[in-house]
């Protein structure tokens, strides 16, 4: 039986565009996959501080966390159970510096076609669009 971990992801939006990052081709779990910044927390780590840390490590940005927008629970290939919390965020800095884990980034219009997003992320995109309309 695999261990349980909490992960956090930053749904970063700026001028109605979402930041996506591409994993390296030698990534163990999802080579060449487009994703959003984030990762697993250390045991006992505060999710807000952990998300700020992960985002800074992966893309060099400081962020403001606005609100949690979704929760996913899944089991990885290595049987590790993950509960992932996705937070709507906005960048506080501009200069993106990718870590060694990633090879590329792009900003995608929030109203782009479904095929432009990772499959798992499209439901989150729709939730964020509804949130933006309400606020």
Look at the structure and name the CATH superfamily: Nucleoside Triphosphate Pyrophosphohydrolase
- Overall number of structural domains: 1
Give the CATH architecture.
Alpha-Beta Complex
The radius of gyration computed from the alpha-carbon positions, rounded to a whole number of angstroms, is 14 Å
**At the third CATH level, what is the topology name?**
Nucleoside Triphosphate Pyrophosphohydrolase
Please, what is the average pLDDT? Answer: 94
In CATH's first tier, which class applies?
A: Alpha Beta
Describe the structure.
With 135 residues, the chain is an alpha+beta fold. It has one domain: Nucleoside Triphosphate Pyrophosphohydrolase (Alpha-Beta Complex), CATH 3.90.79.10. The protein is built from 2 helices and 7 strands, in the order ββββαβββα. Strands 1, 2, 3, 4, 5, 6 and 7 form a 7-stranded mixed sheet that branches. The longest helix has 13 residues. The protein is globular.
Keywords:
single chain, 135 residues, alpha+beta, Nucleoside Triphosphate Pyrophosphohydrolase, 7-stranded mixed sheet, 7 strands, 19% helix, 41% strand, globular
């Amino acid at each position: 039986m695999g261990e349980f971990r909490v992960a956090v992801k930053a749904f970063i939006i700026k001028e109605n565009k979402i930041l996506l990052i591409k994993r390296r081709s030698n990534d163990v779990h999802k080579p060449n996959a487009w994703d959003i910044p984030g990762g697993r927390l250390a045991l006992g780590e505060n999710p807000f501080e952990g998300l700020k840390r992960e985002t800074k490590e992966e893309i060099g940005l400081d962020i403001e966390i606005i609100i949690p927008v979704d929760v996913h629970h899944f089991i990885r290939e290595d049987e590790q159970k993950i509960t992932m919390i996705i937070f709507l965020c906005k960048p506080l800095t501009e200069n993106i510096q990718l870590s060694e884990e990633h090879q590329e980034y792009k900003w995608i219009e929030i109203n782009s076609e479904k095929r432009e997003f990772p499959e798992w992320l499209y439901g989150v995109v729709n939730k964020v669009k509804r949130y933006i309309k309400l606020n």
